[in-house]
Design a protein that fits this description.
extended, two-stranded antiparallel sheet, 53% helix, mainly alpha
Length: 120
């Protein structure tokens, strides 16, 4: 069951923008062949997810270490997810807030004992 869910998820993500670009949807056999090149989900979930996102052309690596550039189709997915989550949050009385994405090293240095290994 998990493998079937992975294949369906991968197929959806991988083909999201293909339809918009008027490309033919890949057959399951073609998709399975291409997915064999990906890191196995059970071996390294984080790497599998990153491989899939890059292979689907939803995002690409940035010049800034640890950051990705989210491409238009990836951003469209993010907006839909955000909208759905926002509706659920508001239904439960939660108010939105934004926090810094990148934290200056000087801030981490002040809390070095709490983030040992990161501030040095």
């Amino acid at each position: 069951m998990q493998l079937e869910c992975d294949i369906i998820l991968a197929h959806i993500i991988y083909n999201i923008h293909a339809h918009e670009k008027a490309h033919a949807w890949r057959t399951q056999k073609e998709m399975a062949k291409e997915l064999k090149e990906l890191t196995k989900r059970a071996d390294n979930y984080s790497q599998w997810y990153n491989d899939l996102i890059v292979k689907a052309d939803l995002a690409e690596q940035s010049a800034v270490r640890g950051c990705m550039v989210i491409k238009p189709y990836g951003y469209a997915i993010w907006e839909k997810m955000q909208r759905a989550m926002d509706d659920m949050f508001k239904a439960n009385g939660v108010r939105n807030a934004y926090f810094p994405l990148l934290i200056p090293k000087s801030f981490l240095s002040r809390e070095a004992e709490h983030v040992e290994g990161f501030a040095k």
